[in-house]
Amino acid sequence: MEVLTPRRISFKTLFSAAVIVSALGYFVDIYDLVLFSIIRVPSLKSLGLSDAAVLDTGIYLLNVQMVGMLIGGIAWGILGDKKGRLSVLFGSIILYSLANFANGFVQSVEQYAVLRFIAGIGLAGELGAGITLVSELLSKEERGYGTAMITSVGVAGALLAWLIAQAFGWQTCFWIGSGLGIILLGLRIGVLESGMYKKIAMTTVRRGSFFSLFTNRMRLGKYLRCILIGLPTWYLVGILMTIAPELSKALGVTGAITGGEAIFWFYLGLTLGNLASGIVSQVLQSRKQVVLLFLLAASALVAAYFLQGSSTPEIFYAICTMLGFASGYWALFVTIAAEQFGTNIRATVATTVPNFVRGALVPIALLFQWLRLLLAKHNTPSDALIYSAALVGAATLVIAIAALSGLGETFGKNLDYIET
Q1: What is the pLDDT of residue 66?
Q2: Residues of the chain with pLDDT under 70
Q3: Cβ–Cβ under 8 Å, residues 235 and 364
Q4: Number of neighbouring beta carbons within 10 Å of residue 12
Q5: 2 in a structural domain
Q6: Considering the entire predicted model, what is its pTM?
Q7: Is residue 179 in a domain?
Q8: Domain that holds residue 159
Q9: Which runs of consecutive H residues, i.e. helices, occur in 342-380?
Q10: What is the DSSP string of 71-114?
Q11: Number of domains into which the chain is organized
Q12: In the chain, how many H helices and how many E strands?
C-alpha cells in the first residue's frame, strides 16, 4: 500500500458541482428507496389488505423492487462505461421519478408491484455513477472525503422520507419524491464528465463489458468479495428495520414500534457512520481496517438487538441508531469496489456491486421466510420469527468478514488504468 504524505485538502474541490450533485442525487435516491419500507403498512392497508397479509405482501413488493435494482444495476453500469457517467445520472432519475409519480395512483397490489419494479430499475444507477464520477475527478488524497460526503448526504434522504410520511398521506409521499427528482435534473446541467473516462472514450478500448468480470478467476474473486462485504447492511434495513413492528412485539418490547421510525433512527446513525468511516479511513490510510471495525461493531449490536428482552421503545430505537452507525462502512464499501477495477469497467462494477447487495435482499428474505416456517413447526410463531432473523443475520456477518479478509487494500491507489 502506498503511504500518502499529508497535503492540504481543497474544500473548493470537495464542494465542486460533481460532488454536490452526486450527493443530492443519492439523497433523492435514498428517499425513494426507503419510502416503501416507511409507508408499507398504511399503503397496503389502504388497498384493502388484512393485517396478516401486510407482512408477506410487503416482503414480496420489496423483493420485486430489489429485482428491478439488480437488473437496473447491470444496465446502468454498462451504460456508464459505454456512454459516460453523466448519462446514468440523468437517465436513472428520469425513470424512477416517473415511476414514483405513477405509484401514487395505484389501486392494486399488481399495479404496485409493476411500478416498484420500474422504480427499482431507475434507482439502481445513482450511487454507482456518482461514486465513479467523483472517484475519478478527485485526487487520491481527497476521494475518500468526497465519497463519504456523497453517502452521508445521500442516506439523510431517508430522514426526509420519514418526516414527509408523518405529515402527508402515502400517495403524496411518492409524488413529492418524484418532484424532487425532476428538480434535481436541472442541477445536473453543467456537471463535467470524468477526464479519465473521456480519455479512454477516444480509444478502441472495450468498455462496459459486464461478462469480462467472469472470464478471469482473480477478477471474479475480487468482484464477488466486493459484493459479499455489503450483505449485512441490507439485512439490517430489509429485515431488522422493515419488520421492526413484528420483531419488537416478538421480543417483548413494551410499546408500539413502527417500521418508519425504526428506519428513521437507523438512517440517522447511518448518516453519521458514513461520515465517520470516511474520515477515519483517511486518517488511518486504510479502507479494510475501518470496514472490519464497523463489521465487528455491527455483530455486537445485532446481538444486542435480539437480547434486549422487554426493553422500552427508547432503548429499541437507540439500538437501531447504533446499528445504523455500524452500517456506516457503506461509504467505504462502494469506494472499495470502485477502486478495485480499471476505468473501462469501473462504472459497471461500482453500479452493479451495491445493487447486487440490494438484490441479495431477495434470497436473504426468502431464507428468512423459509427458516421462519421451518422453525415454527417446533417453536412458537414469535420464537420462530426471532430465531430465523438472528440466524440469517449471523450468516451475513460471517460471510462479510470472510470476504473482506480476501480483498487487497485500495487506499491511495492510482485509478488511471484499464482492465485487460
Answers
A1: 82
A2: 1-14, 189-190, 192, 194
A3: yes
A4: 7
A5: no
A6: 0.83
A7: yes
A8: 16-190+215-405
A9: 346-359, 361-375
A10: HHHHHHHHHHHHH-HHHHHHHHHHHHHHHHHHHTT--SHHHHHH
A11: 1
A12: 20, 0
